[in-house]
Amino acid sequence: MSNVDAVLGHSSSSNTQSTSSEHIESFPRAAAESDLLSIGRDERVSEVSSKSSIEPSLALDDDDEHDLPELDSDDDNLEEDINTDSEPSQSRCPSPTPSIDGDEELDPDELKAGTTDSAESPQVLRTRALRQTLEQLSEDEIERRMLANLEALKNTGFDLALMLDFLCDGKYTTRNATIRYARTALMCSDELPNIFRCCLKPPRWSASAKKKRATGGRKGLAPVAVDWCLEVMHKEMDALGPLLTTDTATDVRAESLTGFTFLELHARMSVVAPTLVQFMDSLPRRRSSPVITVTTISQLMYQNNWSNNRLQKTFSIYFKFKGLTAKGFDVLHALGLVMSHSWISKAIRRMSRMTLDELRELVQKYPWVLTYDNVVILFKIFSQRLENLQKLTSGTAATAYLKPGATPLPASATQDLKEQRAANLDSPITIRRVLDLAAVGNKKLRPYYAWLLLAALIHSPDFDLSTYKFKDHTLLQKPPPLNPLPIGKDAKSMQFLLSSVNQPEASRVKIDATCTITSAIITCASSFWSTLFKCKIWSVVDWAGAWVCGLTFGSHD
DNA sequence: CTGCCCACTACACACTTGGA
DNA sequence: TCCAAGTGTGTAGTGGGCAG
Known about the structure:
Number of domains: 4
Order of helices and strands: HHHHHHHHHHHHHHHHHHHHEEHHEHHHHE
Radius of gyration: 42 Å
Region (Disordered): 1-121
Mean pLDDT: 67
Largest sheet: 4 strands, antiparallel
Strand order of the largest sheet: 3-2-1-4
Shape: elongated
Number of strands: 4
């Protein structure tokens, strides 16, 4: 066996797996780093390209093969190859021949990641050059050469299917750099997508001829394409996991439940899982719906992994507070749209506890207002008996309000209000006093009355303010507000519903009753109210005005 | 009116799942 | 392998609907 033959693996038919170990010893790592291996891929391609430009060649001749440098071998893969010598390895097998830089096969993942620019690879450039030359030939000449190639295949015991199968199989490509080069050229070529497309649906070149379309490869290719799509979409679903996973520490907070939109989710899903989203979007024949796409993917994700439940938790809370029955939840849970019913029950309790904790913290920082009123609940009995009669039960419901940006009331506010009220009871307001107060108020409001009249005139369509010469004059501007209310995010007030108590608020005719109601509310929300006790607001809660208007002021002072 | 069946709710507990 | 989160199932209590 000559060295060249050994390098190219040409020696004999038995020189397949069984000779691997010989090659390993014949071409150690040092040989791979020899001068022969230092030939650059660019040099090789330019050589081929220049040759093809002179005389187009459809197949590499023997000289070409001899000129081809080989890939380097990998020690780890060598061992693996030795150990599995009877089966074709799916991973890179050792090359029995030396290699050159840039002759490595392109891994699909590398191609996807863009680490290798296949479009500009030497193999692609070579194929393009060949194509350019071929396109200058007549159809007859191309046909003649194709027949010559098929004849060459036939003479060597191949046909096109076998040739491609052996080429793509990997067994021989890992052994020989020439075959590997050819495979890379095929895999990275611009022509491959079109080859695949034509296999699925062979084109009709003569539309007028009513001949039957050539038999395509759809039957064999379709299952492969389906498998490939499934593999891609499974990977994308794995990548989608973090997007739909929720944290139980924050999952029932408002910002978590409402902090996304379907359009936003759809856009983010499109980035992480483009194939899956495109697949879902393109299924409806009429028009796609991001909502349905996101919901369907969420259902599948939830089925795959319970922790991917962002949409399910939001839907669960929504349907719960819309009064969906337990049976309804069971159905929707089976459809993968909501969480289980037991989760919902626990989530409601967690929400209540979290809200109360938040309120407990806030009342120590900001002034707060407590309102309460009676609530009447009918316990309806459709089949009444003596021991089981319909009842109309009264209770008290309370709500706490906080406004973080508000100026705290002075500590004497409650006392001042009580004294003012007591004083007014002894000296009711007179008509003259009412008129005096109105006169003072009217003086302040006069510019606003004038502005109302002026605005009606200058904003009428006929006046056309935009064309008026003095439209920017100060007299035509709206006067600044007297006491503008704060607006914006910081000015938003917060509302907390407290637990209702079975103490009729109608018993408020006495101050003692008010205290009883408040005590009952306190008992129901002990953790919150114990904090209020610490804030020494008990005297405020005991305020007499509470039983009149159901309003209690609180302050951390 | 009674008895039976069913629905709903709350709860406990064993089990499953997935991540660390 | 452990642990947290979530699921599934069984049980008890309550009450509505319906037939007899």
